[in-house]
């Protein structure tokens, strides 16, 4: 019986090696180890018919053969799987690809980029200024007296007497005019800082974009026409733009700019929003022009300031400003 077993084992191992796929391998397994028809199992059933003295040795040999075959089947099965994976004919092209992780542009940066692209096409250049600035640039040169509430320590983050974190991007107006003679046409994006409560519409650090135009013969008509054109390009062709009288120390007259947007849904239906305030603007106060040595009899100008994060909130229907500044990847990943 032991010789018989050895013969079966040799045969079975050869069959395992020759099996070309999982199906063939399974047939080999059934042929030798199958519970009812298997050749090895058949031999084991005959154990009861042999001399009792020979039974233990024969039983042990049969078990060894079974283990050897199981191991060989297992190895061949893994080998076949590896071969199948390497074979281009077995690549499943319908499986979803593995996603590569990659960074994306922050939604507020994207708004800044879009705003910048529009003004660049209208002949503007880009300017920048320091985030740590002085009372002169942040307030005084902008015609804002230091006893104005905005200059109060309640509202502005002072670093030292006279030195502060800029509370708006308007000081870039002054720094640009100091360095260059008219004509001026700039936009200046950057971070600004305020001692504000941290809630759904306020954060102590946020982005702004400043705009400034100075030239001979510049009027409120230029301001209205340019900002209305900007509004239609940024918010969509159906956008209405409204100018409401307001007050800023550095502009006279001053205006608050509202837009009424037309939202077109995926199904083609349209909805018109309420008026939404999107920026402050106005004609540069002659006192500001004089502060940088410009001749305010000869030159006039207009300016605007707006918050790109607010524009991002409106664009994406996000109701909490803080989400744009907390940089939680679960939030930001949605804008990939
Ligand atoms: N600096 C103003 C603010 O932070 C915004 C602003 C209003 C800027 C009118 C301007 C302007 O240039 O003309 O609230």
Q: Can you walk through the features of this model?
A:
With 336 residues, this protein is an alpha+beta fold. The protein folds into two domains: 2-90; 107-335, BirA Bifunctional Protein, domain 2 (2-Layer Sandwich). It has twelve helices and ten strands. The strands form two sheets. The chain has a seven-stranded mixed beta sheet with strand order 1-5-6-10-9-8-7, with helices on both faces. Strands 2-4-3 form a three-stranded antiparallel beta sheet. Strand 7 and strand 8 form a beta hairpin. Helix 1 runs parallel beside helix 4, helix 2 runs antiparallel to helix 4 (55-86) and helix 5 crosses helix 10 (308-316). The longest helix is centred in the N-terminal third of the chain and has 32 residues, at 55-86. The radius of gyration is 39 Å and the shape is rod-shaped. The structure holds 3,4-dihydroxyphenylalanine. 3,4-dihydroxyphenylalanine is lined by residues 168, 170, 210, 248, 251, 280-282, 303-305.
Give a nutshell description of this structure.
The protein has helices at residues 2-18, 22-33, 39-45, 55-86, 107-121, 135-138, 171-179, 220-235, 286-291, 308-316, 323-326, 329-332; strands spanning 125-126, 132-134, 158-160, 163-165, 184-193, 205-216, 240-248, 251-264, 270-284, 299-306.
């Amino acid at each position: 019986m032991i010789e018989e077993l050895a013969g079966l084992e040799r045969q079975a191992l050869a069959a395992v090696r020759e099996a070309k796929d999982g199906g063939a391998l399974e047939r080999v397994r059934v042929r030798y180890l199958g519970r009812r028809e298997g050749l090895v199992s058949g031999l084991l059933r005959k154990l009861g018919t042999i001399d009792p003295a020979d039974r233990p040795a024969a039983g042990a040999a049969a078990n060894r053969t079974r283990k050897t075959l199981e191991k060989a089947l297992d190895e061949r099965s893994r080998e076949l799987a590896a071969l199948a994976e390497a074979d281009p004919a077995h690549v499943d092209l319908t499986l979803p690809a593995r996603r590569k992780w990659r960074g994306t542009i922050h939604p507020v940066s994207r708004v800044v980029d879009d705003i910048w692209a529009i003004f660049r096409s209208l002949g503007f250049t880009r300017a920048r200024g320091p985030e740590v600035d002085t009372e002169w640039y942040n307030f005084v040169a902008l015609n804002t007296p230091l006893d104005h509430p905005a200059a109060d320590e309640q509202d502005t983050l002072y670093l030292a007497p006279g030195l502060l974190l800029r509370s708006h991007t308007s000081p870039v107006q002054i720094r640009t005019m100091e360095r260059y003679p008219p004509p001026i046409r700039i936009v200046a994006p950057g971070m600004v800082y305020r001692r504000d409560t941290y809630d759904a519409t306020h954060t102590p650090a946020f982005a702004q974009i400043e705009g400034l135009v100075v030239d001979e013969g510049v009027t409120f008509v230029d301001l209205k026409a340019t900002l209305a054109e900007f509004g239609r390009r940024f918010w969509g062709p159906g956008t209405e733009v409204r100018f409401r009288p307001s007050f800023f120390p550095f502009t006279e007259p001053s205006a608050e700019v509202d837009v009424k947007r037309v939202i077109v849904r995926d199904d083609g239906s349209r909805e018109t929003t309420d008026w939404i305030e999107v920026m402050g603007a106005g004609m540069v106060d002659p006192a500001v022009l004089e502060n940088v040595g410009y001749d305010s009899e000869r030159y006039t100008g207009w300016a605007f300031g707006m918050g790109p994060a607010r524009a991002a909130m409106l664009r994406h229907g996000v109701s909490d400003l803080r989400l744009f500044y907390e940089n939680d990847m679960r939030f930001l990943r949605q804008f990939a």
